[in-house]
Amino acid sequence: MTDMSQSTMLGGAARKIGPVVLDLNNISLAFGGVKALTDISFDVRQHEIRAIIGPNGAGKSSMLNVINGVYRPQKGEIVLRGEHRTNMDCYSAAKAGIARTFQNIALFKGMSVLDNIMTGRNLKMKSNFLLQALYWGPARREEIEHREKVEEIIDFLEIQAIRKTPVGRLPYGLQKRVELGRALAAEPDILLLDEPMAGMNVEEKQDMCRFILDVNDQFGTTIVLIEHDMGVVMDISDRVVVLDYGKKIADGTPDEVRANQEVIRAYLGAEH
Ligand SMILES: Nc1ncnc2c1ncn2[C@@H]1O[C@H](COP(=O)(O)OP(=O)(O)OP(=O)(O)O)[C@@H](O)[C@H]1O
């Protein structure tokens, strides 16, 4: 683990980037004959915004799924805050403060915004099912505390006006914002965002960018994101790792990655 730290300027404010919190070493993952990831290594520092980019099928979502334990790599190890693991499982990833959003929105469409965000508090709930059902004593106090936290998130994301609306009735951009809210309800240290701006119009993208920067800045959350919009990636990321056909082809600052010949070739090839 390195203790190297650095200051960067983003959004006008100086941000302190801390030591490595997540280290991925030589990760390989295959589905039958399909090699989704081959010998991938990169690290994520505390408080940074780290992007994973690459053409379709490059292995980006698979990488996030390895980090939060949905997929188990055949080779390699994950070092989380200095603790070595060959595998991560979803429960321990969540317990260790890793939350994520998905490429395709995964919310309960018939439930209100508030109730959807509340589901993100599940791991934080201590009282047992019986007490919760009776809404008695500690369960009642606990629910009030969780509600307060959820209301804070609703204020932060500026969605007070739709707090009682069933999620399925909301436009796509707002549903994505609610999904971010649910992930934030877990009070994560590391937030994994899988294409948070996919399918959004320009205004919605600007809003989402602002919220991601604010989460990073105000809560100190480390962010790992996959995003196809290059303008957004280059604007908000501290460092970018580039995958192509399951292999890492570049890793560096947005400027370094932009000038990398192999990256240019991969993207031009993908366009053709
Ligand atoms: N569950 C799975 N079963 C079989 N193959 C899979 C599975 N998940 C991913 N793959 C394959 O692994 C490779 C990488 O897929 P992945 O979804 O990680 O790429 P991606 O970079 O996220 O792509 P996109 O930008 O299109 O979302 C692809 O060839 C894909 O078909």
Q: What gyration radius follows from the Cα positions, in whole Å?
A: 19 Å
Number of strands: 12
Mean pLDDT: 87
Q: How is the largest sheet built, in terms of strand order?
A: 8-9-10-5-11-12
Structural class: alpha/beta
Name every ligand kind in the structure: adenosine-5'-triphosphate
Helix content: 25-40%
- Second rung of CATH, namely the architecture of the largest domain: 3-Layer(aba) Sandwich
Total DSSP helices: 10
Which geometry do the CA atoms define? globular
Largest sheet: 6 strands, mixed
Low-confidence stretches: 1-13
| CATH homologous superfamily heading of the largest domain | P-loop containing nucleotide triphosphate hydrolases
Can you walk me through this structure?
- This is ABC transporter ATP-binding protein.
- Keywords: ATP-binding, Cell membrane, Membrane, Nucleotide-binding, Transport.
- One of its GO terms (cellular component) is plasma membrane.
- InterPro entries: AAA+_ATPase, ABC_AA/LPS_Transport, ABC_transporter-like_ATP-bd, BCA_ABC_TP_C, P-loop_NTPase.
- The protein has 272 residues and is α/β, with parallel strands linked by helices.
- It is 37% helix and 27% strand.
- It is built from ten helices and twelve strands.
- The protein has a six-stranded mixed β-sheet with strand order 8-9-10-5-11-12, sandwiched between helices. A four-stranded antiparallel β-sheet has the order 4-3-6-7, with helices on one face. The protein has a two-stranded antiparallel sheet with strand order 1-2.
- Helix 3 packs parallel to helix 6.
- The longest helix is centred in the middle third of the chain and has 19 residues, at 138-156.
- The termini are far apart.
- The chain binds adenosine-5'-triphosphate.
